[in-house]
Amino acid sequence: MKFRLPSPSRTAGDPTSARGPQDGARFGEPSRTALLFLLPAALLFAVFLVYPTIYSFVRSFFDASGDEFVGLGNYVSMFTDARTLTAIRNTGIWVLVAPALVTGLGLVFAVLTERIRWATAFRLLLFMPMAISLFASGIIFRLVYEEDPERGIVNAAVVSVHDMFTSSAEYPEALPRDDDTLEVTEGGYTTSATYEQGDVVELPLVGFKPGDLPSQAEAAAVPEPAGNELRGTVWLDASFGGAENRIDPGENGMPRVTVEAVRDGQVVATTSAGNDGRFTLPDLGAGEYRLRLAESDFEAPFRGLTWLGSSLITPVIISSWIWIMTGFAITFIAAGLSAIPREALEAARVDGATEWQVFRKVTVPLLGPLLLVVFVTLMINVLKIFDLVFVIAPGSVQAEANVIALQMWQVSFGAGGNQGLGSALVVLLLLLVLPIMLFNIRRFRRERS
């Protein structure tokens, strides 16, 4: 006798028993209702993305007016123009440096703040710059990096630290009076005439506020001549209503000015002026000497660095972007940290791994896909950077800080008015972004499969 096994039937406990034909169709061809809902989005996509892309590509083969076909002429001009090459170079620096720094800082801050009590408040504080527009952030950092220490907070801090270790000049930017007594030379202010023992030399200076003299400054006085000494007075010749090149009532000496006796180009003696400006150079020996007021007493004070100059402008703008975007990276990476199985971390610690080994061999590999998402997103953001460069960089150095997006705007709508060349730059920017987008799409598909 042959037995036939019963065909498997769906029971109430079988999860597939409740599925009907309509459930299978959910993942099949979209229905007309679904297409109807997708139609507005598709229209907006076509109007604001597909059409501008095609039009820009076609427009890039025409001249500035759009009437004459120039073929690849705009692309040739693009890669032979010095400003465009600078923009491409700076964009490359942005892509290589900025996303990596932001991702790294976001990872470090997210890990360090994971266990502190006020982690949420700290991350919220770092995320707050994201709530400010890039244009407003650019204005803020334009002031932060202002060269004047009275306005720029960075130079104010730099000057404060500098002055803690190096004293500034006593009489910054004081000048000799415009006559034949002193002349500007290498090393300081040097007398045009020569002097010998027994002479008394009066050396007037101007260009300095009387109220800024040291508190110990006293009324200037002329010393009596001495046979074996060369004497003189250094004073601020700045009294109102007085005569020039003469010590008048109310004029004070300039204490601690360094006076050098120079012979045949060599300094043979040095002294300093007293509180009343008088100085003495004893035992010089026979011969003629020139007197020189040392340059170190009159150097302009240290005013910080020229952050917005041509050499530092790109790092300055990158630093401002890092300040803005670090909160974005911290937020995403912190969310990924909270999803890591704690058992894996504790198992590594039980096996004797240090915190650095746990971070390097467990935390980072588990966060790898998320870190890649953050990094790629930041790369796309960097390729479109425009606002910060436009606002922070002064007009005189904007060419050195130029990037592709800004160059495209300047060529198309600035003084150039060449939308053909601008469209070629748009195509270049699109070609730079496309590989990153395709890489992201392929990675998402691999994770789904």
Gyration radius over CA: 37 Å
Text of the CATH class of the largest domain: Mainly Alpha
The proportion of residues forming helix, as a percent range, comes to 40-55%
Overall outline: elongated
Kindly identify the CATH topology of the largest domain.
Answer: MetI-like fold
Annotation field: number of helices: 13
Q: What can be said about the biggest beta sheet?
A: 5 strands, antiparallel
* Annotated CATH homologous superfamily of the largest domain: MetI-like
> How many extended strands?
9
Structural class: alpha+beta
Distance from N terminus to C terminus (CA atoms, Å) equals: 48 Å
What's the gist of this structure?
By secondary structure, the protein is α+β, with helices and mostly antiparallel strands. It is built from 13 helices and nine strands.
Task: Name its key features.
elongated, disordered N terminus, 2 domains, 4-stranded mixed beta sheet, 5-stranded antiparallel beta sheet, MetI-like fold, alpha+beta
How would you portray this structure in words?
- The protein is of the alpha+beta class and 449 residues long.
- It has two domains: 59-150 and 307-448, MetI-like fold, CATH 1.10.3720.10; 175-297, no CATH class.
- The chain contains 13 helices and nine strands.
- The strands form two sheets. It has a five-stranded antiparallel beta sheet, with no helix packed on it. It has a four-stranded mixed beta sheet with strand order 1-4-5-8, with no helix packed on it.
- The longest helix is centred in the N-terminal third of the chain and has 31 residues, at 82-112.
- The radius of gyration is 37 Å and the shape is elongated.
- It starts with 20 loop residues before the first helix and ends with a helix.
- The model is unreliable at 1-25 (pLDDT under 50).
